[in-house]
Automatic annotation (TrEMBL):
Biological classification of the source: Bacteria, Bacillati, Actinomycetota, Actinomycetes, Streptosporangiales
Keywords: Aminotransferase, Repeat, Transferase
EC class of the enzyme, as a word: transferase
GO terms of molecular function: carbohydrate derivative binding; glutamine-fructose-6-phosphate transaminase (isomerizing) activity
Organism: Streptomonospora salina
PANTHER family recorded: AMINOTRANSFERASE-RELATED (PTHR10937:SF8), GLUCOSAMINE--FRUCTOSE-6-PHOSPHATE AMINOTRANSFERASE, ISOMERIZING (PTHR10937)
A biological process from GO: carbohydrate derivative metabolic process
PROSITE patterns: SIS
Domain of life: Bacteria
Alphabetical list of SUPFAM superfamilies matching this protein: SIS domain
Signal peptide positions on this chain: none
Name this polypeptide is given: Glucosamine--fructose-6-phosphate aminotransferase (Isomerizing)
Length: 346
């Protein structure tokens, strides 16, 4: 395994401090978010790419714990079709790492014109998104040089956890404040389990990445990272969708990478999926899931015991490490994947 340092590797290591700074900045906004929330009844997320994967986490979190319907927008309804939709009573939450993606900024403006109130979540402190949203939730990830998002993604998840608290989720904010320390513990480990999974992935052409509920966002983001930086044909799927047909692609040459919190209502199903994949003769690896999932997998990366609602903020970190190390093992530069840039305009 090469020891060459990449920006991506450095930025993975910066995540605990980025999360601490972000929480220090955003937790005081809870009363302001609550006041805006009282004017709305449901949430519409506007995002693309990694930010869209973060929105999946936000959607599950708000529906499960804030008692509101939350959905993901189709920006082309605004930018391509120019349709008018009644968004009275809707809180439109636009998520953009840079705050400068025109499609996202334009769709948020469209939502406001249709009657929505707006929140912008971005790492771009002085950006069109912050200037036009009713509330700007500016993450404090600092500069991110690698194209694959790492600390900007995890700080978006932290912002969404704060949003859920502001919208009335009956959750303990002190648990959220423990997340940076938990990720410190993940990063402090030698990484033998990560290296072992990377060694098994060298040479494969495809993989299936799966999780459910809160962890579904992690599966989507992990698959995206493997596609972006390692050029792997990685499919991110809910295990419910996987069982409806695509499980046929999992075989000896196509491993499964499963992710789950160490406890929660989706863990048993994830363990059952691991057992089924293993019985079919396919390699199966895990991030999280405690001893129950580890016992059903060939290799696993243990995770701290965070509650399910916060586990995705930490679960993505080993997937980022796997991506960065696999890219370098394959001779690719994880910082500059071909054909990609930090800001994508569509």
């Amino acid at each position: 395994m090469t020891t060459t340092t990449s920006f991506m590797r450095s930025e993975i290591a910066e995540q605990p401090d980025a999360l601490r700074a972000t929480l220090d900045t955003l937790l005081p906004l809870i009363p302001e978010i609550a006041a805006l929330g009282r004017q709305t009844r449901q949430v519409l997320f506007i995002a693309r790419g990694s930010s869209d994967n973060a929105a999946v986490y936000g959607s599950y979190l708000i529906q499960a714990h804030s008692g509101r319907l939350a959905t993901l927008a189709s920006p082309s309804i605004a930018t391509t079709y120019g349709a008018k939709v009644d968004l009275t009573g809707v809180l439109a939450v636009a998520i953009s790492q840079s705050g400068r993606t025109e499609e996202i900024v334009d769709t948020m403006a469209w939502a406001a014109d249709c009657g929505a109130r707006t929140i912008g979540i971005t790492n771009g402190a002085d950006s069109p998104l912050t200037r036009t949203a009713d509330i700007a939730m500016v993450t404090r990830a600092g500069g991110e040089h690698a194209v694959p998002a790492t600390k900007t993604y995890t700080t978006q998840l932290a912002a969404l956890a704060v949003l859920a608290l502001g919208l009335g989720a009956g959750l303990d904010r002190t648990e959220l404040e423990t997340v940076p320390d938990a990720i410190d513990r993940v990063l402090a480990r030698p990484g033998d389990e990560v290296d072992a999974i990377v060694e098994r992935l060298v040479g494969v052409q495809g993989a299936v990445v799966s999780g459910r509920g809160m962890a579904f966002s992690t599966a989507l983001e992990a698959a995206l990272k493997l596609k972006e930086a390692c050029y792997l044909h990685a499919m991110g799927l809910s295990y419910a969708d996987l069982l409806h047909g695509p499980i046929a692609v999992v075989d000896r040459a196509t491993p499964a990478l499963l992710t789950a919190a160490n406890s929660g209502p989706t863990l048993d199903g994830t363990v059952a999926l691991a057992e089924r994949v293993s019985a079919a003769g396919a390699p199966v690896y895990a991030v999280g899931g405690g001893s129950a999932l580890a016992g059903a997998c060939d290799l696993s990366v243990p995770m701290p015991d965070l509650p399910e609602w916060l586990a995705p903020i930490a679960l993505i970190v080993p997937a980022q490490q796997i991506t960065e190390r696999l890219a370098r093992s394959l001779g690719y530069d994880p910082d500059s994947p071909r054909g990609l840039g930090k800001v994508t305009q569509t």
